[in-house]
Amino acid sequence: MTDSVWQGGGVDLDAYLARVGYRGDVAADLSTLRGLHAAHVDAIAFDNLDALFGRTVVPLDLDSVQDKIVRQGRGGWCLEQVVLAAAVLDRIGFTFTAFAGRTRIRTGNKVGPALHVALCVELDGERWLYDVSFGAHGLHEPIRLAEDARLDGDWSFDLVREPSGEHVLRFLGPEGPAELYGFTLDVRHPSDFEILNHFCLTHPRSPFNHRMVLQRTRPEVRHLLAGSTLAELRPGRAAAFRELDKDELLSAPEEIFGITLEPGDVQALRKFLDGP
C-alpha cells in the first residue's frame, strides 16, 4: 500500500489484533470500526508512567509506540494511542482526520488547552467519533458525530452542540450528564501531536507529569487511578473511591490496569512513590 501521513504501511496489524484480542473479520466497515474500538479500550490502558520515570522524551513515532504498547504490553497516553489507532485504521482503509478537544470533566474548563486528541472517521456518508484513549469515562465504541447523537447501553453518552459551534461529548451517568470534552473538527496532524506531547511531558501545569494517572475501560467495570485515589465505576452506580497505600500503588499497574512493566520500570515507579 502507499504509505500516508498516518503510517498505515508500517503497522504490524496482526500483532495489534492479537494485542487487543480482536478475532473478527477486518474491513473498512462499521462492524470493524465498532469491534476494534471496543477491543482496544478493553485491552489497552491509559498510562502516564513514562512521564513519572524521569524520562525527558515520550517518542511518538510508530515504531516506538508499537514497541511499547503492542510488544511490551504497556499502555500509553492519548497521543501515543492515537498514533497507533490511526495507523491501524489507515492500514485497513478507513478515511479519517484527527482533532483536539479541551477536557472538561472534573474541571468544567471550556478554555483550557486542547490536549486530548481523537479521530473523526467518515464512513458511508456519516461521521463517527472514534476515541480509544479518553480513559475511564470514555467511549466504549464509536458514536455518530452529529448533533444530539446518543449511544445508549450500560454506559451511555451523547453529543450536544453549543452556540459557539463546539461539540461536547457527555457521559450519561446515574448522577446526570458529565461533560467530558469540547471540540471542533479543525484538522490536526501528527506534527501537532509533538507540541501537545511536549506540553504534557514538561509543562508545570500539565496534569500528567506529577502524579500517577492510570485508566482502563472494560465492559463490566472501569478504573481510574489519580495520584493515590482509585475510582471504580460500574454501570448504573455512583463511583466508589478508595485510597491505595504504597504497596497497592506499586502493584496497581499490573493487577488492576493490565500493564506489563519491565523490572527497571518497577524500580523507577518505586523510586517515584518513595519521593525525593
UniProtKB/TrEMBL annotation:
The keyword Transferase appears for this protein: yes
UniProt KW keywords: Transferase
Cross-referenced SUPFAM superfamilies: Cysteine proteinases (SSF54001)
Gene3D superfamilies: Arylamine N-acetyltransferase, Cysteine proteinases
MF annotations from Gene Ontology: acetyltransferase activity
Stored InterPro entries: Arylamine_N-AcTrfase, Papain-like_cys_pep_sf
Domain of life where this protein originates: Bacteria
Protein family according to the UniProt entry: Belongs to the arylamine N-acetyltransferase family.
Protein name: Arylamine N-acetyltransferase
Organism: Streptomyces kasugaensis
